């Protein structure tokens, strides 16, 4: 089968940083399903994993943690899917990724593809949606009840990115007042079209901008980029007894003491935790993706597909990685269709 792989880290400008290969088609066992991959999307996780590979290896590594496709075979213990089912999922960071024609994945972290979306539109969603949903509801403890959230506010740092684009919609669906951040006019427009009530510039101090739109502080902060760079602004903007969820490593020492007097909760979100540690509640991601599909088919949540590339091969994946590394993408970049 065709796949795109890495052997060692090279700058994205080097044509050998991602290469086309032929490899054996895998066979499912246990609770694994074998998926014929129709579309994939690219995340910052892909570029981070690629950049860690400083030393060369004899065998190729296949990246990719967002896919949509068709189940073609199931392991002997599978109960959730059968051949022919259309699915979408983010996968498992500890296993080969989905940048291949066929891919093995545990059925417990796979959802049924929304009926109203094509494969590319669906592939844009899993990783970011799982991150946004778990960050908002499991980590920050945001209620699903709009009534319970009446009068509460959330600041989403990086509202026009992949996770931010979903987080804005889910936070608005939960009844929160949504304040997003961006630094460009087109990003601001994108986030507002998804439901953000207000937008501020994350390249400027937060507190004066929040005050200008009528907020002395916010109840929740969802930080989706540059954690260390935004730390002081977050410490100032969060309300007493507020909660901050972070998805990006801090990368440098920060002073957490200013948060003590406010009794602020700091929590992390990594949607790969369940699959990495084989937690007892892995199937929560199956249920969550199915619930998301219902919301999409009901018109309550939109896909965040920003750009399509075709076909799936190394050259287009290099282009997608380059765009992600620029830090200026809006929504998700999706690749579809391997060349037969």
Characterise this structure:
By secondary structure, the protein is an alpha/beta fold. It has 2 domains: 2-125 and 275-336, Quinone Oxidoreductase, Chain A, domain 1 (Alpha-Beta Complex); 129-268, NAD(P)-binding Rossmann-like Domain (Rossmann fold, 3-Layer(aba) Sandwich), CATH 3.40.50. The chain is built from 10 helices and 16 strands. It has helices spanning 44-52, 119-123, 126-139, 162-173, 185-193, 206-212, 227-237, 273-276, 283-297, 314-326; strands at 2-6, 19-22, 32-42, 61-62, 67-74, 86-89, 102-106, 110-112, 153-157, 177-182, 198-201, 218-223, 238-246, 265-268, 305-309, 332-336. Strands 3, 5, 6, 7, 8, 15 and 16 form a 7-stranded mixed β-sheet that branches. β12 (218-223), α7 (227-237) and β13 (238-246) form a beta-alpha-beta unit. α3 crosses α4 and α3 (126-139) packs across α9 (283-297). The chain is globular and about 60 Å long.
């Amino acid at each position: 089968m065709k796949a795109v792989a890495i052997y060692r880290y090279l700058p994205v400008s080097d044509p050998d940083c991602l290469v086309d290969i032929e490899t054996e088609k895998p066979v499912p066992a246990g609770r694994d399903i074998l998926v014929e991959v129709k579309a994939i999307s690219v995340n910052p996780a892909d570029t981070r994993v690629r950049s860690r590979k400083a030393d060369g290896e004899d065998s190729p590594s296949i990246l990719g943690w967002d896919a949509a496709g068709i189940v073609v075979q199931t392991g002997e213990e599978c109960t959730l899917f059968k051949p022919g089912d259309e699915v979408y999922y983010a996968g498992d960071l500890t296993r080969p990724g989905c940048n291949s024609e066929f891919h093995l994945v545990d059925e417990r972290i796979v959802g049924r593809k929304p009926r109203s979306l094509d494969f590319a539109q669906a592939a844009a969603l899993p990783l970011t949606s799982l991150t946004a949903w778990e960050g908002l509801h499991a980590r920050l403890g945001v209620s699903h009840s709009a009534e319970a959230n009446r009068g509460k506010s959330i600041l989403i740092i990086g509202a026009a990115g992949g996770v931010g684009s979903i987080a804005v919609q889910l936070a608005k669906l939960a009844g929160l007042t949504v304040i997003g951040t961006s630094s460009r006019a087109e990003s601001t427009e994108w986030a507002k079209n998804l439901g953000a009530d207000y937008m501020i510039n994350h390249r400027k101090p937060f507190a004066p901008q929040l005050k200008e739109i009528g907020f002395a502080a916010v109840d929740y902060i969802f930080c989706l980029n540059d954690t260390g760079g935004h730390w002081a602004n977050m410490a100032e903007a969060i309300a007493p007894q507020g909660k901050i969820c972070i998805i990006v490593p801090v990368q440098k020492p920060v002073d957490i003491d200013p948060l003590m007097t406010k009794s602020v909760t700091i929590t992390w979100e990594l949607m790969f935790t369940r699959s990495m540690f084989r937690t007892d509640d892995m199937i929560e991601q199956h249920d969550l993706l199915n619930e998301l599909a219902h919301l999409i088919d009901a018109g309550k949540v939109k896909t965040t597909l920003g750009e399509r590339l075709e076909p799936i091969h190394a050259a287009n994946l290099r282009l997608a990685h380059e765009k992600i590394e620029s830090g200026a993408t809006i929504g998700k970049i999706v690749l579809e269709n391997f060349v037969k």
